[in-house]
Design a protein that fits this description.
The structure is a homodimer. The first copy, chain A, has helices spanning 35-40, 64-70, 102-107, 161-173, 205-219, 236-246, 249-268; strands spanning 14-23, 29-32, 53-56, 79-83, 97-101, 117-120, 123-131, 134-138, 148-158, 181-185, 190-194, 226-234. In chain A, strand 11 (190-194), helix 5 (205-219) and strand 12 (226-234) form a beta-alpha-beta unit. By secondary structure, chain A is α+β, with helices and mostly antiparallel strands. In chain A, the strands form 3 sheets. In chain A, strands 1, 2, 3, 4 and 9 form a 5-stranded antiparallel sheet that branches. A 4-stranded antiparallel sheet of chain A has the order 5-8-7-6. In chain A, helix 4 (161-173) runs antiparallel to helix 5. Chains A and B meet through helix 5 and strand 12 of A and helix 5 and strand 12 of B.
């Protein structure tokens, strides 16, 4: 299909990107896909998956200024992009700075301090000052009014629908791509996605599955008409019995599983 | 195996029972498996599944007095059983009646009224009286100290392991037995249980699955070494396209599904 690396990216393309963002005026790094940089900058979040991140171009998966810039970037090349507030988190709205009586908080037994994050009426704000019986809370996004500088690199573009499904699964379920256990059965246009038991009870996992299905049907509609999530419990005693016999059965199983997943992918391409 | 209806029930037997319980002194009906009686007595709970209920004999699935009595009951015959507090919800403990200062509640912005259910230190209590700046809360079980009268009937004993698995699934997932979609694959000793999407986001559904697996491995260990939960999403457009052709495809599908489940059961017996 004449699919050269040099072709510009288009709306709907699946790409993996790496980026690091800083606030232009302060130089503070506020977000990054690099675990190393996150640790160095002390913004490391253990709940987050670091490494290249899936973006579907032109679909609002990233802020507007970056989404537009992606279409001008050559894959593989790191680029620096400056994004004004209008195309990032918006300008600051003085109307979103609200003043409350400190008595209101005391009555509810809430002990407010400067810097506290407060939820109120569905919005999140930060306590900016306390004094004279008043609490000033700013409900603007913390990055509103800021010009952001992205260092961004498009690692590669995904073409294979099964790889796209894997990337969507990784993103929605909060897994590393290599830990996604997914089988595509072309003859029934079905995706079988195994949910690791360790993430089964994660908060909102059921909603994450539903959102994933919705994305799959939106972006892979020619390939998928059925999605099956599987949660598999194998009785522990069996494994332990087997382990006594063979020694390192679990490692072996894991490898076998990885191989079979890979084999299935090959078949489905 | 000489499995006559007249044989007494034993510990570990799977049975379906129907019952209605009243408090001896007042005659108030406090629980029933009959939807009709629940509605008449105005204790109907729309979240509950009415009809025969699974009990595993001697495993504490019901109060002690009933659990013991089940072993003396002939299946099919309705029996009335009187159970003293010691074998029901315990005697009343005056130490569980606690007095709080009303100021404590006001400070937390809680407006207490007589009859309110209060959670405190992991226990649930009922506000019994308010006056003189004091709130008296009774943390005894509401049925503590009560003699209960059960009208109970053992509908039948389950023998088929697949039917037992179905009954366990119905109970843990809060489904009617006829709505359980379960397939037993004898050659791999595996149970495939389909989770209807309408209950996917029910609170604690993931924990219910884990509890179900634990019960299956405890009671059906000779038959099951693997449990697979499946959540299946079929793309709606496909169904709608089909519907235009065949008219009433959904009803047809439902029936087909029921038949195939039944067929699978027959095979596995």
């Amino acid at each position: 299909m004449g699919d050269y690396v040099e072709m510009p990216l288009r709306d709907g393309d699946f790409i993996l990107i790496e980026y690091t963002v800083r606030v232009k005026e302060t130089g503070n790094i506020v977000d990054t896909t690099s675990e190393e940089i996150a640790r160095k900058e002390e913004i490391y979040d253990s709940n987050r998956i670091y490494g290249p991140q899936l973006v579907i171009v032109g679909r609002g998966w990233v802020i507007k200024g970056l989404d537009e810039a992606l279409k001008e970037i050559d894959p593989g090349v790191e680029k620096e992009i400056e994004i004004p507030p209008e195309k990032a988190y918006g300008t600051r709205d003085p109307g979103k700075i609200k003043v409350f009586s400190i008595r209101e908080f005391r009555r509810r037994g809430i002990d407010v301090r400067i810097g506290d994050v407060i939820e109120y009426g569905g919005e999140t704000g930060i306590v900016k000052s306390i004094g004279g019986g008043r609490v000033v809370i700013d409900f603007n996004h913390p990055l509103a009014g800021k010009t952001l500088v992205y260092k961004v690199r498009v690692v590669r573009k995904l073409e294979d629908p099964v790889e796209k499904a894997k990337a969507l699964t990784a993103r929605h379920l909060g897994l590393k791509m290599e830990n996604v256990d997914l089988e595509y059965r072309a003859e029934e246009k079905a995706l079988y996605i195994r949910i690791p038991t360790r993430i089964m009870t994660r908060k909102d996992i059921q909603y994450a599955k539903i959102a994933l299905v919705s994305n799959i049907y939106e972006y892979l509609r020619d390939y998928v008409k059925k999605v099956v999530f599987q949660e598999i419990f194998e009785r522990k005693e069996e494994k332990e019995e087997a382990k006594e016999e063979t020694g390192k059965v679990e490692e072996g199983e894991k490898q076998a599983e990885e191989q079979s997943t890979r084999a299935e992918e090959d078949v489905s391409q």
